């Protein structure tokens, strides 16, 4: 029986691959260039493009002709430029980071296990020799004492399991069990995998742990699932299934992920995370056993398709229409996840709803000090999360960081509150600097060159009234560097109603002539209504933000003479 789900996975994989191969460098005579894949957006060759060897060999197995295999071998040869004498791989030519060696091992292992029969003996031997060198470095260095984020420890469990199985190394299998057990001890009472931050074990003053939805669903949890299946570890599989269920609460009905508050949301884009592998490897292999998981993977795939133009996976829904150039890292890293699912089989399932479509009410998650509100057609996230991965990294202060509507889709999508190239090789810049502004709702005031805003305040007080469908916050104006403005305590209340979101607030009298409420709204059918009793001054401009990838209309509202403002977000459908 024809499986159209598998066909859609494969069609998208081939679309990306064929476009990427047009960018593979040929015939320069320079081994530092030939075989690499040039990224037009970043004007460089990303070191992790060698992960694309595995998808290329899959496509060669499916379609033949030799072109995909030839491209894979050229890419393998190019990878020698980043392979160090100790067996580790550099992330990029300008980056000393070598933790990505684990991903190279996973990719090559899956390529050999599933498609190694395509290779000549000499090429297979070269693959295996590199695997052995990289595996030795991982075994010696990537322990839980290795200072990094938990996604690398989870990937180590998968890499050691795969390589241990492929090469018959019991010591590698033992390390895999050790790393997986340590990672799975990092599950909070409310069901999150924590450790996506440094220090990994840190607990903030609000009792929060380092959690990033994007990296968890696209990398850490899928790698732990891979470990569990290779090692036939039923206890690990049970825990991974629980993690997948908790994190699925943060998938929106159109397949987007709400990572508006995550520790590493500087790499968040609406469909996931810029350089991780994708959620399909975690959610896409369950078939009818867990139909909501299969449904989540498929809806996310449909979002990939919506964000794919001219064969490129763009970094957000509005990148293409805004004229931004797509980074190829998105396609070659997410291609690996699609390939793995295809190799393991995309089993049919009965189409179903997602958790976010079934809920009505308010849910609180203490690990991330965040409320999720499900009211009528609205889904909202209000957060006071205070784990700081980088200054100006994510919103706090009791901010409405995500708002989604069943007919309009995303309406608010915060991410970084102040853009910076924290991982310069994995992020982009826009030449349209005047329009490039954060999408975070906030009360804001600028003094000189310093911006003070409520979204920077990690000491804000957040109070929810579930009966009234409101979250009220009191937060001060604080700079990204934690400089607090005196006498600047402001209040904002977010009230959820079936027909609108009512936002009311107040600023101190001493600031009412300088402070503004800033509200960026996504979508052409979203409208702002100023309540008649408040004589507030409002102006608006079109903006765009790379982190998340949305265009928006930025409204700036000056409070009335009493320092108050009241506005409503309404649907124009």
First-residue to last-residue Cα separation: 40 Å
Beta-strand content estimate = 15-25%
Mean pLDDT: 96
Which spans of ≥5 residues are poorly predicted at pLDDT below 50?
Answer: none
Shape: globular
* CA-based gyration radius: 24 Å
What would you call the structural class? Answer: alpha+beta
Plain-language structure description:
This protein is of the alpha+beta class and 573 residues long. Helices cover 33% and strands 20% of the residues. The chain has 14 helices and 22 strands. It has helices at residues 4-21, 53-63, 67-79, 101-115, 121-141, 150-167, 170-183, 213-231, 234-248, 280-283, 291-306, 319-322, 329-344, 355-358, and strands spanning 38-39, 44-45, 268-269, 272-273, 308-309, 312-313, 361-365, 370-375, 378-383, 399-405, 409-413, 442-447, 450-453, 461-465, 470-475, 490-496, 500-506, 516-521, 526-530, 537-545, 550-558, 564-571. The strands form six sheets. Strands 14-15-16-17-22-19 form a six-stranded antiparallel β-sheet, with no helix packed on it. A five-stranded antiparallel β-sheet has the order 7-8-9-10-11, with no helix packed on it. The chain is globular. The two termini are 40 Å apart.
Provide the descriptors you would attach to this structure in a database record.
573 residues; alpha+beta; 14 helices; 22 strands
């Amino acid at each position: 029986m024809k499986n159209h789900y598998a066909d859609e996975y494969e069609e998208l994989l081939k679309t990306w691959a064929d476009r990427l191969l047009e960018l593979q460098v040929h015939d320069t005579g320079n081994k530092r260039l030939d075989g690499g894949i040039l990224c037009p957006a970043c004007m460089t060759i990303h070191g992790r493009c060698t992960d694309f060897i595995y998808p290329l060999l899959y496509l060669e197995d499916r379609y033949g002709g030799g072109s995909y295999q030839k491209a894979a071998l050229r890419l393998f040869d190019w990878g020698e430029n980043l392979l160090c004498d100790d067996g580790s791989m550099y992330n990029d030519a300008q980056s000393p980071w070598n933790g990505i060696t684990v991903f190279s091992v996973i990719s090559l292992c899956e390529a050999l296990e599933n498609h190694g029969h395509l290779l000549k003996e000499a090429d297979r031997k070269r693959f295996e020799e590199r695997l052995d060198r990289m595996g030795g470095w991982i075994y010696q260095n990537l322990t839980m004492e290795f200072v990094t984020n938990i996604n690398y420890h989870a990937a180590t469990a998968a890499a050691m399991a795969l390589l241990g199985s492929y090469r018959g190394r019991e010591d590698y299998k033992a390390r895999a069990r050790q790393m997986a057990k340590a990672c799975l001890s990092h599950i909070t009472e409310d069901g999150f995998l924590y450790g996506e931050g440094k220090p990994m074990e840190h607990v903030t003053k609000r009792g929060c742990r380092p959690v990033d939805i994007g990296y968890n669903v696209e990398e850490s949890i899928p790698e732990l699932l891979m470990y569990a299946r290779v090692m036939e570890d039923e206890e690990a599989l049970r825990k991974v299934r629980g993690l997948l269920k908790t994190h699925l609460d943060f998938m929106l009905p159109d397949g987007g992920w709400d990572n508006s508050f995550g520790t590493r949301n500087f790499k968040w884009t609406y469909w996931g995370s810029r350089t991780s592998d994708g959620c399909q490897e975690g959610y896409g292999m369950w078939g009818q056993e867990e139909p909501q998981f299969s449904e989540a993977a498929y809806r996310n795939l449909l979002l990939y398709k919506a964000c794919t133009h001219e064969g490129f996976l763009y970094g957000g829904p509005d990148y293409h229409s805004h004229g931004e150039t797509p980074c190829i890292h998105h396609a070659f890293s997410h291609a690996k996840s699609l390939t793995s699912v295809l190799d393991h089989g995309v089993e049919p399932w009965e189409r179903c709803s997602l958790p976010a479509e079934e809920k009505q009410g308010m849910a609180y998650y203490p690990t991330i000090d965040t409320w999720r509100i499900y009211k009528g057609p609205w889904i909202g996230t209000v957060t006071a999360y205070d784990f700081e991965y980088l200054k100006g990294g994510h919103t706090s202060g009791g901010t409405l960081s995500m708002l989604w509507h069943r007919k309009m889709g995303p309406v608010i999508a915060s991410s970084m509150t102040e853009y910076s190239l924290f991982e310069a090789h994995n992020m982009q810049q826009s030449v349209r600097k005047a329009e490039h502004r954060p999408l975070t709702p906030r009360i804001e005031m600028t003094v000189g060159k310093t911006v003070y805003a409520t979204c920077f305040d990690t000491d804000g007080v957040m109070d929810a009234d579930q009966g009234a469908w409101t979250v009220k916050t009191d937060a001060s104006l604080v700079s990204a560097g934690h400089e607090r403005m005196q006498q600047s305590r402001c209040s904002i209340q977010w009230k959820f109603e079936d027909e609108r979101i009512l936002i009311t607030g107040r600023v101190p009298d001493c600031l009412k002539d300088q402070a503004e409420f800033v509200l960026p709204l996504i979508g052409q059918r979203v409208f702002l209504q100023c309540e008649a009793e408040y004589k507030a001054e409002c102006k608006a401009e079109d903006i765009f933000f790379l982190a998340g990838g949305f265009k928006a209309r930025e409204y700036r509202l000056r409070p009335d003479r009493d320092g108050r403002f009241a506005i409503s977000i309404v649907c124009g459908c």
